[in-house]
Write a structure and sequence with these properties.
By secondary structure, the chain is mainly α. It has helices at residues 2-43, 74-77, 80-113, 119-122, 129-136, 155-163; strands spanning 45-49, 55-60, 65-70. It is 59% helix and 10% strand. The chain is rod-shaped, with a radius of gyration of 28 Å. Residues 1-47 form a coiled coil.
């Protein structure tokens, strides 16, 4: 009887060891995929233009602008207030694109994690890795509608604008 119980325990231990080995293999594969995704994302950049095509913003994967380009004739085609709005618009668009890129990069990894047990399932009281990932990548904020096209000045309005130095008093 003791030998039968011992064999049953050994078989149970082998089965448990097989499950643990499978979990470790899955964990290692996911760790490599996460590292690859982080590397791709760290090297990624996005570019967005303002709707008036006067401003181009390039941002890193975190949505932080790394380059702001103004078209050479931007100061002739619009007012400082409208140009500021164009810069804001292009910067926000680049940040949204960066968020979408991060979502695409890590989105595939999120579904893989659903198939394996979470850390608290294995170790009671341990923090949840799935909750940590959800906290790192919250639901995206819906995009605001694009602002209306700025009105470009004709030559006469532009001359008047600069002649009267309206740019110094906010266009009043």
């Amino acid at each position: 009887m003791a030998d039968a119980e011992r064999e049953a325990q050994l078989a149970q231990n082998r089965a448990l060891q097989g499950e643990i080995d499978d979990l470790l293999e899955t964990f290692e594969r996911q760790r490599r995929e996460l590292a690859d995704a982080q590397s791709r994302l760290a090297a990624a950049s996005v570019t967005a233009w303002s709707s008036d095509q006067l401003v181009r913003v390039t941002a890193n994967a975190a949505g932080v602008p790394t380059e702001v380009h103004l078209e050479p004739d931007a100061f002739k085609r619009t007012t400082p207030q409208k140009l500021g709005a164009s810069i804001t618009e292009a910067t926000q668009a680049a940040a949204r694109l960066a968020g979408e890129e991060a979502e695409r990069t890590f989105g595939a990894l999120a579904s893989v994690g659903d198939s394996i047990p979470d850390l608290p399932d294995l170790v009671p009281g341990a923090p949840s890795i799935k909750d940590l990932v959800r906290d790192l990548f919250p639901e995206p904020v819906p995009a605001e509608p694009a602002p209306a096209q700025p009105v470009l000045m004709d030559d006469e309005d532009e001359d008047e604008y600069y002649r009267n130095r309206s740019y110094l008093d906010g266009g009043r």
